[in-house]
Each structure stands twice: as C-alpha cells, then as structure tokens.
Amino acid sequence: MQKRIKIILTAVFSLFVMSCSAGMDQLIDEFNSNYVTVIPERELPNVNKDGYKQSMMLQDHYHVLIGERFEANAPLGGKSYKWTLVNESVEPVEETVIAETLNVRMVIAEEDFNIAQKYTLKLKVVNQSNKVFLDYADFYVFKER
User: Are 108 and 66 a contacting pair, CB within 8 Å?
Assistant: First the structure.
C-alpha cells in the first residue's frame, strides 16, 4: 500500500513540475524582481581619476576597542601604500608603519596602546603618475564602549 502511495505521489509531483510553463531561470528571475532589491555597486575611489582629493581617503577619526580588529581600505590605483600610526605624546615622536598594502588589518592589543590616548593614523598613497596623496585621522583606543 505504501509503495502504491509513493508511486502516485511521485507521478502527481512529476506532472505538477512538467505543467509549469516557465523555466526555472524565469521563476527565479520573477521572484528576485518582486522580493529582492539589488543595490548598484558604487564606484570605488581611485587616486588616478581626475578630481580625486586626498581628504577622501580616511575618515576624520576612528574609535577602536582593545581586542577588536581594525580594518581600513585605501583607494584603488596606488603604486605604493603606507599606513603609519603616530604617537605624538612621547619624545621622540614614535612612527610605526603598520602596513604597506591597499588594506590594513590589525588586532588592537592592550600592550601596544595607551588607553584613551590620541594617535594619528597616516595614509600615504603614490599613484601611477607618482603624485603623492596624504591623509590623516585621529585614532583613539578604548577598553570598552
């Protein structure tokens, strides 16, 4: 009896699937157009484009927490990149290069920073025409929110 029910259900399901006039791609496209909003990609910043301003590279300030990961991206089109953290509260001023890549990623370790002290994050990008772009941001490290 169960075998007969399985055969009947399989046949009914097969007929149902074959009776659909739309193909699977069309069904998916119709679903997506009704229920999914596609946000167009914005144009990524590029230092080789006319009118690019160096002040567009970094935010004005960053607040990061001990134990969390800090990530930032430089604009595209650079021939070289240099991310530096500057500690101006000590003599002599300490400058630490933290990355020489398009992106910077680092875990904020308590032993590397003084809590609630202002550091300066400096980004230097040289484009394909050897034009230098510099931007600075205040960089604060906190223990908790």
Answer: yes
Written in H, E and C, the secondary structure of 41-70 is CCCCCECCCCCCCHHHCCCCEEEEECCCEE
Residues 6+ apart with CB under 8 A from 106: 69, 70, 98, 99
| Measured distance CA(127)–CA(79) in Å, rounded | 5
Nearest CA among 122, 128, 44 for reference residue 78: 128
Query: In the structure, what pLDDT confidence band is assigned to residue 81 with cuts at 50, 70 and 90?
Result: very high
Position 17, amino acid? V
The pTM of this model reads: 0.67
Rounded CA-CA distance 31/85 in Å is 49
Nearest to 79 by CA among 105, 47, 52, 50: 47
Backbone φ and ψ of 133, nearest 5°:
-115, 130
- For residue 128 the two structure tokens come to 């394909």
Among candidate residues 59, 63, 57, 60, the one with its CA nearest the CA of residue 81: 57
**CA–CA distance, 85 with 137 (Å, rounded to integer):** 10
